[in-house]
């Protein structure tokens, strides 16, 4: 095999069966937890911990750049 053929080969990404700590399913679960908190307490201020956890996970996924959201 020549050097050019080796360079042109595509190396597949490693198959990672472990879910990302902020995978979409985790984000969805965090959003559900946030919504449940609000439903139970009827006050977003009482759900700051849930909101902050969701916000940090959202940012780690790069969704703030993708959706161009801005922190207030």
UniProtKB/TrEMBL annotation:
Highest taxon of source: Eukaryota
Biased composition (Basic and acidic residues): 1-10
Residue ranges of the region described as Disordered: 1-21
Segments of skewed composition (Acidic residues): 11-21
Name used for this protein in its record: CHCH domain-containing protein
Organism: Penicillium chermesinum
